[in-house]
Amino acid sequence: MMPQTLLLVALFALVFMFILSDFQRRRSPSVSLAPAAGVGMITSLFSPSLFFAALTADRDTTSRESVIFSYPVAAAKKIYAGSLVVLDASGNAEPGTTATGKVAIGRAREFIDNSAGAAADLNVEVEQGTFRWGNSSAGDAITKAEIGDTCYIVDDQTVAKTDGTGTRSAAGKIVDVDSDGVWVKTVY
User: How many helices (H) and strands (E) does the chain have?
Assistant: First the structure.
């Protein structure tokens, strides 16, 4: 038999067992049919508690291999390809700036000009991962001693060692520092 035919036969059998079970209960509530027990086992496979209970064995958890996601762009914002992108409090993407309450999400894969648009008029593709950003200067410059620490957003291409006395959002974890900049893993 073809798989579609088998599916229809199984569906018909389930419906028949439900009807037969209901008929039997109306005639004699104290008597149950064996097929009804089978139906109970089948329906229990689709119980929400099966999907939300704590694990008692190994589980093959699915994952998203892609590190590219699309986010709606905030109103009146322009995002350049290669820039550090954050989410605002409404979940809209915008370029990184010195501000609190932002969530770093990665690097823009494309240029998007929503400077004349409303929030969510356009979407931007953002890649998550580890990227090299420009290093801040003076007392906020990041050194190899800060590897493993959190760094903070200065603008859409620069990160700093400190949160600027509570004025900056986190960019991610410092992975490496070289003469060209700071390697930062986006963590959120």
Answer: 3, 12
Give SS3 for 9: helix
90 with 43, same domain: the answer is: no
**Residues 27 and 100 grouped into a single domain:** no
φ and ψ at 20, to 5 degrees?
-60, -40
Verify that 120 and 34 share a domain, yes or no.
no
Distances, alpha carbon 58 to alpha carbons 50, 61, 64, in Å: 15, 9, 19
**Inside any domain, residue 92:** yes
pLDDT digits (tens, 9 = 90+) for 54-106: 888 888 776 655 589 999 999 999 999 999 999 999 999 999 999 999 999 99
Task: Enumerate the β-bridge partners of residue 177.
Answer: 182
What's residue 89's pLDDT? Answer: 97
- Burial label for 22, CB within 10 Å (0-12, 13-18, 19+), is exposed
Domain that holds residue 40: 3-52
